[in-house]
Amino acid sequence: MKLLYLTIVLAPLIGSFFAGFLGNILGRKATHSITILGVLISTVLSFYAFNYHVLEGNDAFNQNIYTWLAFGDLSISVGFLVDNLTAVMLVVVSFVSLMVHIYTIGYMHDDDGYTKFFSYISLFTFAMFMLVMSNNFMQLFFGWEAVGLVSYLLIGFWHHKESAVEANLKAFLVNRVGDLGFLLGIALVLMYFNTLDYVQVFNNLNNIAGITIVDDWSLVTAICILLFIGAMGKSAQVPLHVWLPGSMEGPTPISALIHAATMVTAGIFMVSRMSPLFELSETALMFVMIIGAITALFMGLLGIVQNDIKRVVAYSTLSQLGYMTVALGVSAYSVAIFHLMTHAFFKALLFLAAGSVIVAMHHEQDIRKMGGLKSKMPITYWTSLIGTLALIGFPGFAGFYSKDMIIEAVRYSQLPYADWVYIAVIAGVFITAFYSFRMFFMVFHGQSRVDKHTESHLHESPWSITIPLIALAIPSAFIGFYTIEPMLFTGWLESAIIIDPSHASMEILKSNFISALELISHSIVTWPFWMMFLGVITAWVFSLYRTEWADWIKNKFKGLNYILESLYGFDRLNEIFFVNGFKRLGEFFWKVTDAGFIDKTLVNGSAKLAGFFGSLIRPIQTGFVYHYAFFMILSLLFILTWVLYSGENPLLGLPF
Amino acid sequence: MTSAQVLFYTFSFFLVASSLIMIFAKNAAKAVLFLVLAFFSVAGLWILLEAEFLAITLILVYVGAVMVLFLFVIKMLNIDKSTLRARFAGYLPLGLIVAAIIIAEMTMVLGHEQFGLNIYPAPENASADYSNITVLALQLYTDYVYPFELAAVLLLIAIIAAIALVHRPEQNRKKQDISEQVSVSAKDRVRIVSIAKENKEVKK
Amino acid sequence: MISLSDYLILSSIIFCIGLVGIFINRKNIITLLMCVELILAAVNTNFIAFSHFLGNEAGQIFVFFILTVAAAEVAIGLAILTLMFRNRGSIDIDITSSLKG
Predict the structure, then answer these.
(1) Is residue A243 over pLDDT 70?
(2) Which residue of B lies nearest to C79 if distances are taken between CA atoms?
(3) Band of the pLDDT at B12, cuts 50, 70, 90?
(4) Which domain holds residue C34?
């Protein structure tokens, strides 16, 4: 089995090396074949591993492969922990990555950096595998940073575009802020547990139960909140969400791969993996839940006013990540993973469909310039419809099951403020339906607002783009129905996730559950269903039926519109406060301390001081011989006197 | 007061007086002559100390050659006739004080307690056939022959140095510098000038 | 009887007179050279006094060499003086202040 896991990890890495270093020599066809072959191998083996661990129920695999460094008692190694949770993540990541690899053949067809792109996405796949398969915090951090790095490389892929470069810097820096918290959390773990290995940490949790640091903060709460800050950076929760919309500057395949399905879910995965730790601190769970709710609601609101097709989907991602975080907060870890899985499929599908539309429209991304594309691009249309229905939670599709479970879990939670969160997530359903169908209607239905030249070229995208769309549409439709029961209730993830008995929402959910089919019929009487329905109707009204009403509302509520369009001012705040602040600080250090103090005062000043003393001593050299002779005589006198009178046995005693 | 003491005090009086006059003399030739007197007194003192050879050498070589050399240079450069600035006053008190202190200290060290007759008794007078030259020569040519040869070389060097310093080659000598002659180029020697044609005809 | 210390004190007096002479000399370099001669004479007296009272001829031999070196030094000193006079026109001491700092 060890060999199998090593192959899963290394196959994309080897593909990436070939594409990166030999890409130009091998040519396009060979490059994409090698990388797709690498990821295909990983996908097949991931499915095999999934089968082995989850379906056949074998034991988890936990082994250190290679000791990286050892000092004192601490030894840090590269190791794999493959249990059910890991297996699920492996399947999701490898499948979506494979789809994106195939999609790239068509999407990046005209681009010069074709081989470089394949190298990067394979490298990303490798990093993500290392992250989910790690068995200690250090490797987790390595994977964490590596996916951040590749994300940076990919967002700025079109590096001659100024906006892309700004966006990739923003992504990296904001991630860095989150990573600071993450590192502090890891440092605390190291300090108090003296080891970075997951299993050892989880076995010794009782040791730290009562410890408090810095006055009254419980250690467990501190560790959990710090680790979650890292998740906030990676999974784009408020206020570290500002990088995700900017990341849409990169090509669409990476938006699908990284910013919908895999990297942003790393945070969610990490918190689930740390469930034994998080269960010990209710404060941390509450913090997680509230942040998630804020993100879910407010980011959804922003999706309503976006006009770029990719930005709508980006804000949708942010909102759904908020949902996953809320699920984590109410101790429904398996529901969060479930939603992670379904979301990966339908969000990747939506992004790839958006990419298909963009390619067909010759890289036009504004939805106000689209419309009536249904007849021209049928496959894209139908797969988008499936994806959108899954996203809004239409009964029977994948998103319905996961989202409803989250809402139910929140309802049964005992945490403080849970009722407010419940209202927020229900409102979120309406908003989700609204913006999703607004986009859908504006792109595919209604009158065509496409300009004439582009319209003449409109046609369905090539098979390399549509095959992944179909391949992703199938799980979006059906996977929820088939996997809800085993994943949540009959223990697919039981061995990996620990839940404290006092956080009983999962138990109640389990006791209320009858069957997947029943959930569909039961949904008619629940709030989310009607919220969703209302959202669709509203979207239809404002986008198709009476678009003038939309403009009228926009003019009436100018203030609200301004707040939404300026994205709540987060970007301005960051720019004014942090960026300018650091620039000023840097300028201060440069001008005052470096140039002024060190250069002028210390360096030049010491030279001038030496010169000054020199000028004081110089006049002694008068140039006249008799002066020199006189100094010699004087010195002679002094020496004589000294020799005569000083020391322990002077030649002469003093006359007095 | 023995005759030795009288002689000693006489000689030392002349020595001190003439050296004092020498340093304050305005006329350089006068200063030289008083230095000669000082050296004569020193020679007398040396004879008192039974170092006859060196006393005579002092007079013959030192006074006879070196002081005469001084006089030559003074006369040659007309120093005593030119107007010279003489500004003593500034440093004289300070110099005298410093000198007085040095003398006082040295007297304290070299006084009778340390070097008096009870510690270093006066030696016997030498007999009449005491030959200072022979005694010195016996030491000089056996134990100290190496420094003796070096001193000879030193004098040779002094001769060569003095001549080399002062020697001026003749000003009007014509001599050839071959390298300069060879490195001449045409433009150093010939310059071609174009002149406008004049229209005057030559009268036949 | 003349003791050793008398000779030593005498030579120290002459030495100091020579020093003062160097020091207060403002006029010309000849005076400087002559004061150097005076100092050498004082030192020679010192040596010979010790040689006499200690019965050791080494002192007189040393004086012999000092006389040699002094003669050589005067020769060269006067040569330099002549050159200076030739180049600068006078032997005033104040001229030789090129090393002024």
Answers:
(1) yes
(2) B162
(3) very high
(4) 26-92
Q: A641 and chain B: CB distance < 8 Å anywhere?
A: yes
The three-state secondary structure class of A186 is helix
Q: In chain B, what residues touch A633 (CB-CB under 8 Å)?
A: 98, 102
The answer to whether the beta carbons of residues B52 and B132 sit under 8 Å apart is: yes
Q: Counting one residue from B and one from C, how many pairs have CB atoms under 8 Å apart?
A: 224
What percent of chain A is modeled with pLDDT above 70?
97
Chains that touch A (3 or more CB pairs under 8 A): B, C
Record: contact B101-A636, CB cut-off 8 A? no
Q: What is the CATH number of the domain that holds C38?
A: 1.10.287.3510
Q: Which residue has the tokens 């019965």?
A: C55
Q: For residues B70 and B140, state if they share a domain.
A: no
Integer CA distances (angstroms), A586 to A579, A580, A593, in order: 10, 10, 10
Residues 6+ apart with CB under 8 A from A539: A433, A434, A435, A436, A437, A438, A440, A441
CB proximity B111 to A under 8 Å: no
Q: Which of B19, B96, B151 sits opposite C68 (nearest CB)?
A: B151
DSSP string, A81-115: EE-HHHHHHHHHHHHHHHHHHHHHHHHTTT-TTHH
For residue range C40-54, what is the model confidence (pLDDT) as tens digits? 999 999 999 999 998
Domain count, chain B: 3
DSSP designation for A652: S
Shortest CA gap B102–chain A (Å): 6
Q: What is the mean pLDDT of chain B?
A: 86
Which residues of A fall within a CB distance of 8 Å from C39? Answer: none
In this structure, the answer to whether residues B10 and B61 fall within a common structural domain is yes
What value does the mean pLDDT of chain A take?
84
Question: What is the count of structural domains for chain C?
Answer: 1
- CB crowding A247-257: b at 16 or more within 10 Å, else e: bbbbbbbbbbb
CB contact under 8 A, A630 and C101: no
Contact A623 C100 (CB under 8 A): yes
- The predicted structure's pLDDT at residue C32: 87
Asked if B158's CB is within 8 angstroms of C72's CB, the reply is: yes
| Residues with Cβ within 8 Å of residue C15, at least 6 apart in sequence | C39, C42, C43
Contact yes or no for C16/B102 (Cβ under 8 A)? yes
Question: For residue A325, how many other CB atoms are within 10 A of its CB?
Answer: 28
Residue B76 in domain: yes
CB pair distance less than 8 Å for A626 and C93: yes
Interface with C, mutate which of B8, B63, B68, B70 (most C CBs under 10 A) = B70
Query: Which chain C residues are closer than 8 Å to B155 by Cβ?
Result: 68, 71-72
- Under an 8 A CB cutoff, do A641 and B95 touch? no
User: Is the residue at B175 inside a domain?
Assistant: no
- On whether residue C65 sits in a domain, the answer given is yes
User: Which 608-627 residues of chain A touch chain B by CB within 8 A?
Assistant: 626
Give the CATH number of the domain where residue B60 resides: 1.20.120.1200
What is the Cα–Cα distance from A463 to A278, expressed in whole angstroms?
46
The answer to whether residues B58 and B14 belong to one domain is yes
Residue B43, domain extent: 1-82
Per-residue pLDDT 10s for chain C (101 aa) are: 788 999 999 999 999 999 888 888 777 788 889 999 999 999 999 999 999 998 888 999 999 999 999 999 999 999 998 888 888 877 777 777 777 76
In a domain, C85, yes or no: yes
> Is C3 part of any domain?
no
